[in-house]
Amino acid sequence: xxxxxxxxxxxxxxxxxxxxxxxxxxxxxxxxxxxxxxxxxxxxxxxxxxxxxxxxxxxxxxxxxxxxxx
Length: 70
Description:
alpha+beta; 2 helices
């Protein structure tokens, strides 16, 4: 699938504060976007943000690797 991943990152940036973003190869020409997002603790869990990111065209899935308090 031909998706401009920089556009995907820009759309995520409109939803949340991104501290870091990188595009990494997976396999067979597929790539993934990894983003480090910082959001206030008072805003609750990650489910609402995950749902909004899934709605972005070209996004197949969202996986949270880690959640921590600062």
